[in-house]
Amino acid sequence: MKIFQLPWLFLIPFFTALFGINTILVSSQCLEGQKSLLLQLKNSLKFNSAISVSLVNWTQTNDCCGWKGVNCDPNGRVTGLDLNSESISGGINQSSLFSLQFLENLNLANNSFKFAQIPPSFGNLTSLRYLNLSMAGFNGQIPIELSLLTRLAVLDLSSLYFPGTPSLQLENPNLLTLLRNLNKLTELHLDGVNISAKGSGWSQAISSSLPSLRVLSLSNCYLSGPIDISLQNLQFLSEINLGKNNLSAPVPEFFASFPNLTALSLSSSNLYGTFPEKILRVPTLQTLDLENNRLVDGSLPEFPRNSNLKKLVLSDTKFSGRLPDSMGNLTKLSWIEIARCNFSGMIPTSMANLTQLVYVDMSSNMFNGPIPSFQMSKNLSYIDISHSNLTGPVPDTHFEGLSNLVNINLAYNSFKGSVPSSLFSLPSLKKIQLSNNHFDEVSQSPNRSSPELSPLDTLDLSSNKLQGPIPPYFFDFVSISIFSLSFNNFSGIIQLESIRRIPSSTQLQSFSETSFEGNERLCGPPLNTSCSNPSTPPSVNKSDSVLRTVFDWQFIYTGLGFGIGAGFIVGPLMFWKKLSNCCDEHIERFVWKILPTLGFIFPCCNDVNDEAEDNIDEVPLTEDSDEDDDEMEDKTFMGRYCVFCSKLDIYRKKVIHDPKCCCHELPPISSSSTSSSSPSK
Ligand SMILES: *[C@@H]1O[C@H](CO)[C@@H](O)[C@H](O)[C@H]1NC(C)=O
Ligand SMILES: *[C@@H]1O[C@H](CO)[C@@H](O)[C@H](O)[C@H]1NC(C)=O
Ligand SMILES: *[C@@H]1O[C@H](CO)[C@@H](O)[C@H](O)[C@H]1NC(C)=O
Ligand SMILES: *[C@@H]1O[C@H](CO)[C@@H](O)[C@H](O)[C@H]1NC(C)=O
Ligand SMILES: *[C@@H]1O[C@H](CO)[C@@H](O)[C@H](O)[C@H]1NC(C)=O
Ligand SMILES: *[C@@H]1O[C@H](CO)[C@@H](O)[C@H](O)[C@H]1NC(C)=O
Ligand SMILES: *[C@@H]1O[C@H](CO)[C@@H](O)[C@H](O)[C@H]1NC(C)=O
Ligand SMILES: *[C@@H]1O[C@H](CO)[C@@H](O)[C@H](O)[C@H]1NC(C)=O
Ligand SMILES: *[C@@H]1O[C@H](CO)[C@@H](O)[C@H](O)[C@H]1NC(C)=O
Ligand SMILES: *[C@@H]1O[C@H](CO)[C@@H](O)[C@H](O)[C@H]1NC(C)=O
Ligand SMILES: *[C@@H]1O[C@H](CO)[C@@H](O)[C@H](O)[C@H]1NC(C)=O
Ligand SMILES: *[C@@H]1O[C@H](CO)[C@@H](O)[C@H](O)[C@H]1NC(C)=O
Q1: Closest C-alpha residue for ligand 6 atom 11
Q2: In this model, does residue 360 exceed pLDDT 70?
Q3: Distance 447 CA to ligand 11 centre (A)
Q4: Candidates 124, 127, 144: which one to mutate for ligand 5, based on the most atoms within 8 Å of Cβ?
Q5: Are strands 78-82 and 70-72 parallel, antiparallel or unpaired?
Q6: Whether the predicted pLDDT of 621 surpasses 80
Q7: CA 133 – CA 201 distance, rounded (Å)
Q8: Which Gene Ontology molecular-function terms are recorded (predicted)?
Q9: Helix or strand holding residue 20 (H, E)
Q10: What are the helix and strand counts (H, E) for the chain?
């Protein structure tokens, strides 16, 4: 017998190991009762199965602890349920949710409960530590039963509030009765809940109930002030958001005494008085937002080198004084918005050391002196220092290599010298606004660090003192939609053939007269100034000499028609080319006559309509076109250029005129220059 016992004894550790593993497997498997509760829950909830990613995949077959959005404890009891963004719209009242008695974490955020009330049954889930009903579409009075959830550490009932829509209310119970027993709360988010507490009662309710509070977010809660001093007992407070209330009080200095203050947002809160500088020197502070408190004044202190400030938003306050040189110590600063304040003095050159900057809006202050370099701020994407009193040149190197820069606005200052041409080849740059300065030079070729031009949609250099010919590459920005060189000293003839290079017809709008007006020494279409006028002799150099071809038919084709409409328009235009001596009105009449037959409305800019019927017969209708082209190109053409700013809107079946550039004089063209014509690419 002993002989046979030995192998059996040998197997004992093996079986115990197997058994052990087996119990672990069993215990992680969800309990049958829990599984059927979840399946009942799925059946009673209304949700859109096309949007749902969790509920929709709960099926009879598998272990429910492995379902998406479900968490279990080692005993197979469901302790976590994350059903955020599942497009749930109802069916929660009678559901089995409130029988999942082991739930500790529940997230129903971002659903659409259609302004229903929060079911009082949430009070049954007494194990909850985390409850997130933010943006779930609930509305009305918050039920008193939530105050039974005494283990809660995080409560989020916040929602975006739009005036005029119903919101959650805390009237009965009020804030104090809701919170009195929730002593374990570390995060309270009630943004958008109508707390509507009079006086400073709300801050007392919080300070007396929530000793462990770390995050307090009560924006848009109809709170009034002042902020009670008892709040300073909450020594763990780290994030405070009281924005969009009517606090009508000064900012209390005790905010500076929270040892771990990281974010303070008090925007649009009707604050007044002087902002305590001490708060700005709190070493842990990362975000300060005081935007839109027009009665708050203050100034920036010397910043210590260990500052953690990342985001500073002071726009629309009365902050004034200089920016301290110690701004250079804010090495983590990435976002600075101090627009429409009353700052003055020089912008410290130490700002050039702020390598983390992403967003800079310092517009509408009274800064003077030069602009600092931003060359080291490689992540910079937005810079607006317009409407100040800055002077001096803007060196090309200041913005060199800023590959993320999208928007630069230096308008309404007193900058002079050369437009920084490095801007024109930054790979992300969409908007350049340099108007209303004293720039007097723009380089004739972009300072290309990269082979491409920037993808500009806006180039505004108006009201400067720029002179010389218009740089040819200005016409190479393929997606430009706002383009203004008006009120400068540009000279020469607008190179129509350059404009022709712009590919899309919609962009013709960018090059109307207003783009160029106010340049006395500039002539040619789309301006009305004829280049022949001897009183304003344009300084013509070889490169920008004379318009070579009379018309670029391709261009008019693009300008007048697009889509299927285009095909119908080519014929008449070609035909007009033959009759190039005819008055331009003929073409309008012609188009006017023929388009209605195609179902288009053609409102003519000159009210040609009335007499048109009479004379229309003078124009023989023929669509025969191409044969005489070569002959025509040798003839000189002087006349008016009328269809430049017209286009067919194929969807509205309408011809759209820009009345400002309906007809333009073409400059006289010498036959020598026409003979050397070569179609521009
Ligand atoms: C849900 O299940 C379907 C098919 O059973 C699967 O294609 C899809 O990837 C699953 N979705 C998620 C979010 O697991
Ligand atoms: C909210 O849910 C919708 C789907 O219903 C989703 O598209 C959206 O991204 C969610 N929003 C957030 C902030 O999670
Ligand atoms: C609540 O859930 C939403 C959506 O999942 C999330 O964005 C938000 O941060 C959550 N709130 C808290 C306090 O965790
Ligand atoms: C639950 O039912 C009550 C009435 O019994 C109703 O007022 C409430 O809006 C319902 N809530 C939801 C989420 O359907
Ligand atoms: C909540 O608990 C009460 C008793 O504590 C019970 O009567 C009620 O049925 C429970 N509600 C749900 C939905 O489980
Ligand atoms: C906020 O609630 C109070 C009552 O508590 C009410 O008088 C007021 O109209 C509510 N305001 C809004 C915007 O719902
Ligand atoms: C803000 O509160 C002050 C004083 O409590 C009050 O005079 C003022 O009308 C309130 N402003 C708004 C917009 O409610
Ligand atoms: C300070 O607050 C941050 C962010 O809220 C948190 O991560 C950190 O643990 C807190 N530190 C202390 C000492 O409380
Ligand atoms: C930066 O902080 C140090 C002290 O930490 C201070 O001496 C210095 O003046 C501050 N300013 C600059 C520009 O470094
Ligand atoms: C702006 O600051 C100047 C002093 O720098 C002061 O004289 C002026 O009153 C301030 N303006 C406003 C609107 O606060
Ligand atoms: C930038 O920082 C370096 C090193 O911290 C310092 O030597 C230099 O003076 C700073 N430059 C400016 C313009 O403040
Ligand atoms: C702008 O600066 C000039 C001198 O540089 C000064 O004369 C003028 O008063 C300043 N304007 C404003 C609005 O500060």
Answers
A1: 194
A2: yes
A3: 28
A4: 124
A5: antiparallel
A6: no
A7: 25
A8: kinase activity
A9: helix 2-28
A10: 12, 37
**Cβ-proximal residues to 423 (8 Å cutoff; 6+ apart), any chain:** 399, 408, 429, 432, 454
pLDDT tens digits along 118-167 = 999 999 999 999 999 999 999 999 999 999 999 999 999 999 877 778 89
Nearest ligand, CA of residue 100? 5
State how far the Cα of 235 lies from the Cα of 258, in Å rounded to an integer: 6
CA–CA separation, 559 and 196 (whole Å): 59
Whether the CB-CB separation of 233 and 258 falls below 8 Å is answered with no
* Region for 215 from its dihedrals, namely left if φ exceeds 0, alpha if ψ lies in -120 to 50, beta otherwise: beta
Q: Determine contact, residues 618/586, Cβ cutoff 8 Å.
A: yes
Q: Is 68 in the pocket of ligand 1 (CB under 6 A)?
A: yes
* pLDDT tens per residue, range 519-576: 888 877 677 777 665 444 444 333 332 222 222 222 333 333 332 222 223 223 333 3
Inter-residue contact 395 to 420 (CB < 8 Å):
yes
| Strands 366-369 and 482-484, bridge-based pairing | unpaired
Higher pLDDT, 593 or 288: 288
Q: 372, 363, 384: which is closest to 433 by C-alpha?
A: 384
With CA atoms as reference, report the closest residue to 584 among 500, 671, 664. 664
How many angstroms does the Cα of residue 98 sit away from the middle of ligand 8? 33
The response to whether residue 320 sits with its C-beta less than 6 Å from ligand 10 reads yes
Tens of pLDDT along 330-354? 999 999 999 999 999 999 999 999 9
Where do the domains of the chain lie? 594-621+631-677
**How far is it, in rounded angstroms, from Cα 372 to Cα 156?**
43
Q: How far is the CA of 270 from the centre of ligand 7 (A)?
A: 8
- Please list the alpha-helical segments (H only) found in 517-581: 553-560, 565-578
* pLDDT, tens only, 469-501: 888 888 888 888 888 999 999 887 776 655 655
Measure 389 CA to ligand 10 centroid, in angstroms.
15
Q: Which residues line ligand 12 (CB under 6 A)?
A: 366, 368, 389, 391
pTM reported for the whole predicted model? 0.77
